Amino acid sequence: MSDTTLVIIPTFNEIENLPLITKRVREATPGVHILIVDDSSPDGTGELADEYASKDDHIHVIHRQSKDGLLGAYIAGFKWGLEREYQVLCEMDADGSHAPEQLHLLLEEIADGADLVIGSRYIPGGETVNWPASREYLSRLGNIYISMALGAGLSDMTAGYRAFRRELLESIDFDELSDAGYIFQVDLAFRAVKDGFDVREVPITFTEREYGESKLDGSFVKDSLFEVTKWGVEHRSEQAKDAVEDITPVVARLVEDTGVTKVPSKIGNAATYVGNLTEELWKVAKFTVQEKISDAKR
């Protein structure tokens, strides 16, 4: 499937990293195509990308007029790739933190039937290299919290090394994705899980960039965890509501068969209890996140 696979690489001021990442992708997976989505980098990254594209028909470039965030860059890349009938679309950082030499691990799972494959730092075999201990701790803590809040069964929902089958992306309304921090990665994975797609993780080695500056800032923690808390409470509330709706006909039939008349009122009381409990969970969750953010800042 290599010639129907598109690797999307967003760039902003990555002129030092662009030669390295394109060379590594082309050597590791010669058949795949590369789409560089540049946000009008003032350092000349876009012009260098055009130069590569003029010499290699496996390299393509999109120029965006302003720096509009990682989500916007990936949406532009997804739409470009879907319009051109690519069957597998991948996310990859430009800074070398995602090893192109491990891309085959993601593509092999796609070939085996997966709809979304996430390169995970936090499953057996995964690791991080040259990351500050404080940042790794915050990332691990955040992913543990996200996993507990959403119950999606994934260990690294914030990871940005991914391979999507086109059918999954075609099912997503890009306009609905959250742009709070980098939380769209969690949003995409959570939607895929809820919609019944086959989502898998493979272990990868995440290496801190050698050149340039990270685009990640502290807003990720505040914006992302608050958003995840809201989704988690809403999801648990929906599950509780569905459970009550599922059991009500059964109990009603039991009431009819046994002649007991007080059970329906208890069901109503249970539904009210679930609603009140959800509100309390939301209050507790918000307080917990605020505490985590305060601890991280200290």
From TrEMBL:
Query: What InterPro entries does the database record attribute to this sequence?
Result: DPM1-like, Glyco_trans_2-like, Nucleotide-diphossugar_trans
UniProt keyword terms in alphabetical order: Glycosyltransferase, Transferase
Q: Which Gene3D superfamilies match?
A: Spore Coat Polysaccharide Biosynthesis Protein SpsA, Chain A (3.90.550.10)
Name all Glycosyltransferase 2-like domain ranges.
7-171
What EC number is given for this enzyme? 2.4.-.-
Q: What class of enzyme is it?
A: transferase
Q: What's a Gene Ontology MF term here?
A: glycosyltransferase activity
Transport found in the keyword field: no
Q: Which Pfam families match?
A: Glycos_transf_2 (PF00535)
UniProt key word Signal? no
Q: Give the family, as the similarity comment puts it.
A: Belongs to the glycosyltransferase 2 family.
Q: What is this protein called?
A: Glycosyltransferase, group 2 family protein
Which source organism?
Answer: Corynebacterium ammoniagenes DSM 20306
